[in-house]
Amino acid sequence: MVKQEAQREQTASMEDYLEAIANLGEGRKVVRVKQISEMLGVKMPSVTSALKKLSEQELVEHERYGHIKLTPEGNKVARDVIRRHKALTRFFGQALGINEETAEEDACKIEHVISSLSMERLAKFVEFIEACPLGSANFSSRYEYYLEHGELPQDCSKRSVSKRK
Amino acid sequence: MVKQEAQREQTASMEDYLEAIANLGEGRKVVRVKQISEMLGVKMPSVTSALKKLSEQELVEHERYGHIKLTPEGNKVARDVIRRHKALTRFFGQALGINEETAEEDACKIEHVISSLSMERLAKFVEFIEACPLGSANFSSRYEYYLEHGELPQDCSKRSVSKRK
DNA sequence: TACAATTGTTAGACATGTCTAACAATTATG
DNA sequence: CATAATTGTTAGACATGTCTAACAATTGTA
To answer: What is the pTM of this model?
Structure first.
């Protein structure tokens, strides 16, 4: 029994390659196998092999020893990965206050597995946090208090509940 | 060159097996290969094969045609996966308002890749949202307004900015 | 321009995790 | 309790994606 879905979806690996090529190619810069391999932490033969697969799917143009370039379709996929990546990085960085390096790492993993629905909501969430100074200020200051002290700030209850440690 | 790290980390697959065994074994219920295979959507030989690997690592006790049980170490790993799973489900469900099914799916994927730092923060975030009625009420009502209307509620700015579409 | 250094490719090994087909053990039932 | 149904295992194919080793092309430079 063979999967008969559209087969349009990429694996995490292939998405990584597309993303790397897009990022390296910003501003019409020439993209090299070596750069991709360094960016992704794999050896050059892995890149060559990935480029072959992506060429067959017409997501990448690549000729032996020659140029590497995303096709319009490949670019579309890459842009989408990058969009998810950025939103996730912002979420972990801004909203959760995670350090940049960890935020990046998590974004790199999660970008490949999160559903589009959750992705949209997360993006909206970040937009909201960043755009709504009052809501977010109240929110984040209380949240930070909670993070630091491990208990809720006093103004957190509707009634002035006496519950203190 | 061989990786020389502690080799303690499990793959997503192996974590899934451990998690399934823990869930199926709740309340001392007998765990069967068939159940695991159904729960994870794989065929039985895949389960047998996974059990073999997990036995070698002493995370699972399994004898041919016999009982399947987590070792204390295996249980520890499984509990940790389940903890992440639950926190993520709550985050997507409660905080982002995602439907249960999608929240589950995303949790199942992300639980295997998220860093412990982000995991802790996310859990705290959910705790906060759920525990701080005032902060969260203000926050979520504004957030929901934003989700529904696509623009910020009027009380969102510090100054009464005129910026309306 | 010839040679050296660098970059890229090919071939093939290997690890992981899945599957199907065939067989074996266990369990249920007439 | 004998046989059928179910459950589980083994063997081995296959897909993905990585690697090393060897070789080939390109580029830089004396």
So the answer is: 0.84
